[in-house]
Amino acid sequence: MTEEKKKRGLFGKAVDALTTRDEKEAAAEAAKAAEEAKAQAAREASLRQLAEAKAAEAERKAAEMKKQMEEAAKVAEAEARVAASRAKFEAEAAARKAEVEKQMAEEAAKIAEARAAAVAAAEAAKKVYVVKPGDSLSKIAKEQLGNASRWPEIFELNKDQIKDPNLIRVGQELKLPE
What we know:
This protein is mostly helical and 178 residues long.
């Protein structure tokens, strides 16, 4: 021991003990505070890592969502092109069909008109009789209509050219009833 310590005595020793104890308590408190600071730093580092992981996950999800939206836009664009092509094709087909139907209707009308003209000509030829020498209305009725008593029908149809049923001329064209 040093000389000074010897002189201090009991009170000095008590002061030294208290000082040492206070220093130990202060050191223990400092160590405890250092441990708490280390633990706090570890918690903060853990929270920072968790936040970074969450941010990375959010970025990954955002990138994935962006990719899905781009793919959906591409699909929608392709579907729109297909729909437009289909509509164009259907419109062209409808126009061609209408043109063909129009041509068919025109041809059918021409055929019907020709048929009607042919029928009318055939009937006109069938319903007209050219008077020959020795003919009379009753003789024509018997030969053409099958009954001589039908001569008044011939007379009625031809009143525009026959005034007297007993006077008909050779070469005269008379209409016959059906």
